[in-house]
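Support case: flavin-adenine dinucleotide complex. Customer-provided input:
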Amino acid sequence: MAQFKTLDGRVLRSVSLSEFTKHIELEVNGVSRFGFVPGQWLSVKATTPYGEEITRAYSIASPPSENGHFAFCLNRVQDGFMSNHLCSLNEGATIAFQGPFGDFILRPPLRDTVFIATGTGIAPFRSMLHWLLAERDRHRGHQFWLLFGARREQDIYYREEFENLAADHDNFHCLPTLSRAATEWKGLRGYVQEHLPEIVGTRSDMHAYICGLDKMVQANRELLKAMGWDRTSVRYEKYD
Ligand SMILES: Cc1cc2nc3c(=O)[nH]c(=O)nc-3n(C[C@H](O)[C@H](O)[C@H](O)COP(=O)(O)OP(=O)(O)OC[C@H]3O[C@@H](n4cnc5c(N)ncnc54)[C@H](O)[C@@H]3O)c2cc1C
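Agent response - structure generated as follows:
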């Protein structure tokens, strides 16, 4: 079996995105350049208080950078060790990880694309969209929709950042939809799959990328299949 090098990451910053969700920025120790493809994940290792070594996968939530910095978008899972451990780390703490791994990456040729996420499933799309929209040669004017499902307005992670990206690029559309919206909410309501037909219409010449928990991923895959989409046009990453 192939051996992968274990690297150290040092926490530079940890910011709350909501009550149970953190954005943490890290730098890789001891390497001049840390390469990965937007959409890939890292395998984080830690030892529980019972002496058990565990590993968990976390998508990289930032685009590749020159300085070896990267970010995670993490949700505290009830009774889970790793998610709570990572969300509790302070600035200066270190983690051990291997990677990057995974093939949930943008598949050529680039087409108009809908990115569908709930919760921390936004992480790989934050990486992909920042990377894509940074240069015209990368996005070539294609249309991109980010359909992001959250419960309440305060759970729309990176809201300002994606709204600014949409304001700067008329080919990027940020569409948060809330399942428990307050009466004042003027945006979309309900689950992500309820809005997919409006975005896609009768087209099947697009790509769809789906990331989050199994139930949501399945619902969207089944809907796209029923709408006549080819399996190869849909890529997904399940977190559970
Ligand atoms: C490829 C990949 C990428 C991932 N990227 C991210 C990421 O960017 N951010 C992130 O927060 N998580 C991500 N995850 C989930 C992560 O790997 C862990 O499963 C999660 O943090 C729980 O680990 P734990 O040790 O805290 O809890 P565990 O002890 O492993 O799990 C406790 C219980 O919670 C369930 N569970 C696992 N994950 C979730 C979840 N996300 N929401 C609700 N219940 C869950 C498990 O089925 C289990 O029953 C990713 C998973 C995969 C496979």
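The pocket of flavin-adenine dinucleotide is lined by residues 41, 56-59, 72-75, 77, 79-83, 120, 123, 213, 237, 239-240 (CB under 6 Å).

Case will auto-close in a few days if no follow-up is received.
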